Every structure is written in structure tokens, then in C-alpha cells.
């Protein structure tokens, strides 16, 4: 808007005219879009590079953990190999203990059994013979009704300076109190003159229970003699 000297105002339109060729403007727009595209590509590539570095770090950590685990496994395998001779020694010891326990499983403590019988015998009687016969496992089930599983048969004979009652009866009662013995039976009893003394001869049988076993080496050799 402009004033003409007389005070009146006149409105004039001022037009902006681009004098550059249209090709130049188009080229500028293309360059601007190209610059933006380059920036986007750079940002994308940078993001990919960061992700690659992160994944590469994870892979390196996993490989390091794998290598440590492999070293630990190799060390454990070496320790196991070093312990193999001790395992073989333990296996031989267990096998020997099993053989020993099997061989001694049927051993009977004869000394203890004879001592118990001697202590149970009354003063008025004398034992003339005592025979203990082991029963093999295949012969143990002979169909005889027993109050236990016999491991040996016992035959005995002797005499009492008293008559059958109470002399021989006392022997039977005391025999029955001996812990390894059961099924104590009298076969025969008869009087006989020995010099000027009348005695009662007797003989009988009994069975011997598992309690007569020694139980030695049931768990292998004792620690004091084990290698």
C-alpha cells in the first residue's frame, strides 16, 4: 500500500516471482529427499551395527561359557580316570567279602554250644557223647514239624546217678533251656549197675537253631584286618 501526495492511499499487489528455472527447484527437492534418505540409511545401518555387536557379544559369552564347561568336564573325566584303580580295588574287595561271607555263613560256634551244654548239665549227670551234624540247605525242608529252622542235628548220650525222675527229666529240662537247642527229645533211658552204683543211661536228639551260627565276616573283614 502506497500514499500519493494528496493523502489518498492506493493498494498495490506485490507478486513474488521465482526467476530460477523449474528444473533447479526440482533438483533441490530431489537432493533434500536424497539427503534424508541417506540419513535414514545411516541410522538404520547404525542400529544394525549395534544389534550385531550385541549379538556378537552374546555369542562370545556363550562360547566362553562353553569352553569353561568343556575344561571342567575334561577335569572331571581326568579325576574319574584317576579314581578307576580305587574303584577296581573296591570291587575286588566287595567280591572277596561276598565269597568270605558265603563261605562262613554256615559256621557254627561249637565252643559256645559245648560251653552252654556243660553249664546246663546238672551235677548228678554226666555227658558221654555229643555229636553235632550240619544240615545242608537242601535238606532243611524234610517235612518235620519244628519250632524253628534247624541248622544242625544233635545226638547225645550220658547217664544220671539218679533215676529217670527226677534225674533224666532234669537233664531234658536243662537241655531245653540252652538257647541254640530246641526239639529236645529222649530216645531211650535204662538203669545199669556201675560198680556199686545204679545209674540211668539215656540218649536222645535235639535240633540246633540259627542262633548257633558265629556270624563272623557277615559284613566282610573287620576294619583292623581289612587291607
Beta strand %: 15-25%
Neighbour order of strands in the largest sheet: 3-4-6-5
Overall CATH class of the largest domain: Alpha Beta
The CATH architecture of the largest domain is 2-Layer Sandwich
The name of the CATH topology of the largest domain is: Alpha-Beta Plaits
Can you give the mean pLDDT? 78
Q: How many angstroms separate the termini?
A: 125 Å
What is the helix content?
Answer: 40-55%
Characterization of the model:
There is one protein chain. The chain has helices spanning 22-104, 110-120, 164-177; strands at 2-3, 9-10, 125-134, 152-160, 181-194, 197-208. The chain has 227 residues and is of the alpha+beta class. The protein folds into 2 domains: 25-105; 110-212, Alpha-Beta Plaits (2-Layer Sandwich), CATH 3.30.70.2830. Strands 3-4-6-5 form a 4-stranded antiparallel beta sheet, covered by helices on one side. Strand 1 and strand 2 form a beta hairpin. The longest helix is centred in the N-terminal third of the chain and has 83 residues, at 22-104.
Task: Sum up the structure in keywords.
227 residues; alpha+beta; Alpha-Beta Plaits; 2 domains; four-stranded antiparallel beta sheet; two-stranded antiparallel ribbon; 22% strand
